[in-house]
Specification:
homodimer, 329 residues, alpha/beta, Nucleotidyltransferase, domain 5, 2 domains, five-stranded mixed sheet, 10 helices, 12 strands
Chain lengths: 329, 329
């Protein structure tokens, strides 16, 4: 009999679900529309049905499922298993998601912040393998974060630690969606990178990106890196500012929890070496020379599966810890 | 028979030593000159002799000493018990201080960064009591730090985590002693606060502090807060900049490890409420409103004894963990 762990990654648009073996190798995965406006009971039921169908289609036995992990966007009360609120899921207010899913599945469930789940996935089988201290950033619409100290996720007193996108790097700088000024997220997320390019063009700066803006009505972060590769000067400046902001973030987390490895993930890392090398260069410029060589700055390796892998891995860890504590289970 | 724990706090000038009971109540304490230029063997021998005399004078039995803790300035390899180098102790290079002291005392010894030891002291019996997540700052010549996540000190991959004074808050700002630009230490340590006042006066800014500078040739941080209390405008500006820098530091550590309590210690907190209230005000101005109420910003309560209490408490924890692991000891 084999052991199966289920990982569920809830986003505003889609829910990703994967089944993993005890080595956290992917057996099968699928994705369904979140349809959060149907309310929590319908969504939880859909999750369970999707898991059941996924297992059946793969010829797997429900009995072999040991545990599931679920990652959702914050803010939430992860200790008590509650979604407190979620920007894209207005009907999910104070929802005991962990209990609901556990009862529906009849299996133990671990509930975690989505960025922490992806961080844990990279830590266990991805870019963080082999270290005990890691910091993780996702570069997407915003900037999410995860911190692992001595092999453990940092949750903070209220379960909302590692919101690293809201570290202030430019006091009195650009306004962030959170209300603070000068957050790294206001400079270096994919959205902010695109937004800064758009603002510069609207302010009259010459750039090959201007045609994109005129044609499509908007510029994406991908456009910025493509036009940088093609030699556009504004794109270079914008990308440099992004890299410098991310390098400052690396300096600051290094002085906080001293990770051995800093892992960048999210859609923006598709920009590749042109992004990574610039972050590393600015980091080496900024950092105290004594510490420059202690940290490795790398890209994530698990892609979009990090969330489901991490959630499943947390389920596996739960079972292991229960076994270790010699409880009957 | 009572249990005794010894705490040793090594500074460039003095070594503080205290004996504590199992409740970490101070039994007796003393202080001796470090005389680091005599070399590590002489200094270790002096520590041991001082402990012996301290116990004898208090009528305590050597046999009741369970363990000792020692805190020293970094950088060091705390895992292996080595002082790698120390600014004020040039003869202490790659010194296996933990083993030397343990052999000389014939007792188990815990070796820790001095700021971490003080942080642990405040956590166990001082301003951090009752929480599981805390961040600690010492405001002195520089700014030291300590982080506790879920009841454990954060050491980082090389034992040099929580060097929070070197978090960059003003990119391309003032040069810090570490070589970086814009570290919070370059703005908000006691030394930097005094230095910024001195620079302003030398640049021609009018201030009642000018007479102090002319008379003594230097301005202290204490002078700045005294002249602020007396209504001096420059002193107010300088103190405001210090408080704003410390508030930014609070915002950033809150987003990193989400402490329940942030504790300020060190000579500078003698400035009192005028400092604390300004930090709190700037913090509330800067922070994401959702998070403003989750953290308590307070002053340390143990004063200069925090280091010896924390070191002794770490010794106590060592013994407890050995007992818990059921090893023969």
């Amino acid at each position: 009999m084999s052991e199966i762990f289920v990982g569920i990654d809830v986003g505003g648009t889609n829910i990703k679900i994967g089944c993993f073996d005890s080595q956290l190798k992917l057996i099968c995965k699928t994705s369904v529309a979140t349809e959060a406006d149907m309310g929590p009971e319908v969504v939880v039921d859909k999750m369970a049905q999707t898991v059941e169908k996924l297992l059946a289609d793969a010829g797997l036995s429900w009995q072999d499922v040991c545990a599931a992990g679920i990652g959702t966007p914050g803010p939430a009360n992860y200790r008590d298993g509650l979604i407190i609120s979620a920007t894209n899921m207005p009907k999910f207010k104070n929802i005991p998601i962990r209990r609901m899913l556990s009862e529906r599945l009849g299996k133990p469930v671990v509930f975690e912040n989505d960025a922490n789940a992806a961080c844990w996935g990279e830590y266990v089988v991805g870019a963080g393998k082999g270290v005990r201290d890691m910091v993780f950033f996702t570069l997407g619409t915003g900037i999410g974060g995860g911190i692992i100290c001595d092999g453990k996720l940092v949750h903070g007193c209220g379960g909302n630690g590692a919101e690293l996108g809201h570290i202030i790097i430019y006091p009195d700088g650009r306004k962030c969606n959170c209300g603070q000024r000068g957050c790294v997220e206001a400079y270096a997320s994919a959205n902010s990178t695109a937004k800064r390019a758009t603002e510069a063009i609207e302010a009259g700066v010459q750039s090959s990106l201007k045609k994109v803006l005129e044609k499509r009505g908007e510029i994406s972060c991908k456009d910025v890196y493509e036009h940088l590769a093609a030699g556009d000067e504004l794109a270079r400046q914008i990308a440099d500012e992004t890299a410098k902001a991310l390098a400052l973030l690396c300096v600051n987390v290094l002085h906080a929890t001293e990770p051995k490895r800093i892992v960048f993930a999210g859609g923006m890392i598709a920009a590749g070496d042109i992004l990574l090398n610039r972050i590393r260069d600015y980091f080496n410029e900024q950092i105290w020379s004594l510490k420059a060589e202690t940290v490795q700055i790398v890209f994530a390796t698990l892609g979009e599966d990090a969330g489901i892998i991490g959630a499943a891995a947390l389920g596996k860890q739960l079972i292991a810890s229960v076994k270790n504590s010699n409880n009957i289970f």
